[in-house]
Amino acid sequence: MKNGMAECAVCHSKLVSPTVKTISRAYDRHRSKISSKQRALNVLLVVGDCMLVGLQPVLVFMSKVDGKFKFSPVSVNFLTEATKVVFAIIMLLIQARHQKVGEKPLLSISTFVQAARNNVLLAVPALLYAINNYLKFIMQLYFNPATVKMLSNLKVLVIAVLLKFIMKRRFSIIQWEALALLLIGISINQLRSLPEGTTSLALPVTTIAYIYTLIFVTVPSMASVFNEYALKSQYDTSIYLQNLFLYGYGAIFNFLAILGIAVFKGPGSLDIFEGHSKATMLLIINNAAQGILSSFFFKYADTILKKYSSTVATIFTGIASALLFGHTLTVNFLLGISVVFISMHQFFSPLSKVKDDQQNGTLELIDVRENHSSKDSSFVNMAAGANEEASHRVGPDERQPLLPR
Q1: H or E segment at 64?
Q2: 8 A C-beta contact, residue 61 and residue 147
Q3: Cβ(402)–Cβ(37) under 8 Å?
Q4: What is the spatial distance between Cα 180 and Cα 227, in angstroms, rounded to a whole number?
């Protein structure tokens, strides 16, 4: 990209580089024409996310010994990022072997350098994720696994606000009401969830816990929005190449944190495998798989869908927590879950989208030519064709598949 212009990788024609607003408009148009394959992909993403996200706090709880961690949480985060880097490299090698003749090689130095420059924004969510991954362990010291999962759902409202102001995403009144219902459901579940009289750092546990909660909600919400923007704004870049940059930045930030800890605690803390067990190894694998799946959410689906799917994982977490650790499924928990499901149904209901169209007039009128030519076009062309002033067209035999081969 140069001087606000982007060059098509297929025919080398010049395009006006899409802005945040035009990408948002293009996404609105795409969302109103989701194909059956896209719906199937969304279902698979949600099911996989529910299993992985729901299991994560349980594994963290199993990793504690006498209520404490015998290992450094930063070491777990570093090993998780390293695992994801290895996975991205393997998938890049597989994808490169299946490239068609004439396509630009994925593993060439020029491709790598250009992609690194275009995706430098991924360093921002990588740093925020590094902070958030450490906060996950801190939260486990104050809440049981089911409550941690419910608290994380507060991110949905923060993400919606960030999407509105940063990516110019639009939501109907019904959808905002659905988000309010979500907060009500979470609040119901939080009632009397904290032990009374316990202190930490000379502060009541409720005070320090709510401070952590505020940071725990804000930091990953910003990371998710920046991650979605960074991935979608460079849509023609292989997702595995983007993941390599994202996870590489994450591994670097966590390694710097390990070095910082070693400065204060001594060289002995450099042993990243100290205090680990089978539970922590499973936790690393689960966190890595969860991060990889999240990248597909942000690039091919939607951040709101990702966070709403995490609410479904609350049921799995709550039941597993009750069966494995004897935590009680209270009436508050059951009522809160019921309200959350009502919120989900309301937010994704076709009625909410119809109202949104009526309130905003029309979701950015598309000219007749685009209507005829984009009926079977895939979501992969969204970012490159987002700007309404662009006149570029890609032939039917040159379109890319939804997911990389």
Answers
A1: strand 64-65
A2: no
A3: yes
A4: 25
Q: Report the Cα 86 to chain-centroid distance in Å.
A: 20
Q: What is the pTM of this model?
A: 0.69
Contacts of residue 250, Cβ cutoff 8 Å, sequence gap at least 6: 77, 81, 84, 126, 129, 130
**Residue 127, exposed/middle/buried by CB under 10 A (0-12, 13-18, 19+)?**
middle
Q: What is the pLDDT of residue 76?
A: 87
3-state secondary structure 243-297: HHHHHHHHHHHHHHHHHHHHHHHCHHHHCCCCCCCHHHHHHHHHHHHHHHHHHHH
**Tens digit of each residue's pLDDT (9 = 90 or more) over 183-194:** 788 777 666 544
Alpha helices in 119-238 (DSSP H): 123-140, 145-152, 155-166, 173-190, 205-233
Quick one: tokens of 161? 């606000």
2 DSSP assignment: B
- Helices 205-233 & 145-152 angle (0-180, nearest 10): 50
pLDDT digits (tens, 9 = 90+) for 69-86: 788 888 888 999 999 999
Q: What's the rounded Cα separation, in Å, for the pair 181 and 343?
A: 6
C-alpha dist (Å) from residue 85 to 179, 201, 286: 35, 37, 15
Q: What contacts 145, CB < 8 A, 6 or more positions away? A: 57, 58, 60, 61, 317, 320, 321, 325, 327
CB 112 within 8 A of CB 199: no
Dist CA 401 CA 144 (whole Å): 42
Residue 367: both structure tokens together: 């000219």
